[in-house]
Amino acid sequence: MKKHRGELEIDEDIQLESTNWKVQRVAWVLMSLFVLAALLGFTGDGGIGNFQSIKAGDSADGLEVEYERFLRRSAPAEIKVSLQAAPSDTLTDLRISKNFYEKIKVDQVVPEPAEVYTSEEGITYSFTTDKQPFTVTFYLTPKGMGSLPLLFSSSEKQVAITPFIYP
Amino acid sequence: METVIRGLVLYVFLMIIFRISGKRTLYEATVFDFVLLLIIAETAEQALVGDDHSMINSFVLIITLLLADISLSLLKQKYKAFGKVLDGVPVIILDDGKVLHDRLKKVRVDEADILESARALRGLERLDQIKYAILEKDGKITIVPKEPEQQPIEKV
């Protein structure tokens, strides 16, 4: 054991400790940045100014998907899809790629689809419509983690989105 | 499997976060620090167990955490340098009767804290009765008084 002033037996290592203090100061800055990022919505769950709420596609073209860029595993989420009603048929189809029902638990779809079926490409929701543009809201709980590429297709258009799911 | 990963990730996360927030952070247990500790515990609990409230999950988790703790203590014993980095080292904050103000500032301790420990541990009344004050690695301040026959340092 080292002796301080020849009397106090102490394992002091002031060099290590001053490195430690420097690391601590840097870490405090990083912690502040992390909180700032959370406030700006980079960790999901909204944020100041709603910067992370994104619209993909265009409702004028018949398909628009509104979603949050960052989602959280097991935390409730929402995806809104604006659709143009199919001109010929009474039912309007919205097909979403397989990931959608494999990595996400769909809690509720508003309005309720008239039919739902799965196929090789994914899951198809058929909605009864009034020949008007309409919006479908999906209430979801993500189950997976990481980037989740999703493809939304109506009869004419396709929109791809890639939200990120935090563990 | 997920429980083990959750447990280990949270263990490492908490270790790092408390290490970098400095040793005095949770030792000065004022009422508010106590509340803070409770809130952190509650938040960590959610991240640890998630939605799985089964007994086997808590068994897995408890054993994982204890095993992590045991492994770490073994590592610290084997590699002294690792232990120093992880736990820090004691720092002399009052040396031979002289208060080291620059160090006090760095460790977020003030003279009042030294006096508090001096009163509590040794029944001392003034700073000039203290020979050494040391901030130990667990965040306590220990006191060596200025007396001809020095008694061993004692901890509360």
UniProtKB/TrEMBL annotation, chain A:
What keywords are annotated for this sequence in UniProt?
Membrane, Transmembrane, Transmembrane helix
**Top-level taxon:** Bacteria
- Per the UniProt record, which residue ranges are transmembrane? 26-44
Q: What is this protein called?
A: Uncharacterized protein
Q: What is the lineage of its organism?
A: Bacteria, Pseudomonadati, Bacteroidota, Cytophagia, Cytophagales
From TrEMBL, chain B:
Q: Which Pfam families match?
A: DUF421
Q: How does it sit in the membrane?
A: Multi-pass membrane protein
Question: Is Transmembrane helix included in the keywords of this UniProt record?
Answer: yes
List, alphabetically, the GO terms of the cellular component aspect: plasma membrane
Gene3D superfamilies hit by this protein: bsu07140 like domains (3.30.240.20)
Transmembrane regions listed in the UniProt entry? 6-22, 55-75
- Which residue ranges does the record assign to the YetF C-terminal domain? 77-151
The protein's matches in InterPro entries, at most eight in alphabetical order, are given as: DUF421 (IPR007353), UPF0702_alpha/beta_dom_sf (IPR023090)
* Domain of life of the organism encoding this protein: Bacteria
* Keyword terms, alphabetized: Cell membrane, Membrane, Transmembrane, Transmembrane helix
Where it sits in the cell: the answer is:
Cell membrane
Which family is this protein grouped under?
A: Belongs to the UPF0702 family.
Name recorded for this polypeptide: Uncharacterized protein DUF421
Q: Which organism is it from?
A: Pontibacter ramchanderi
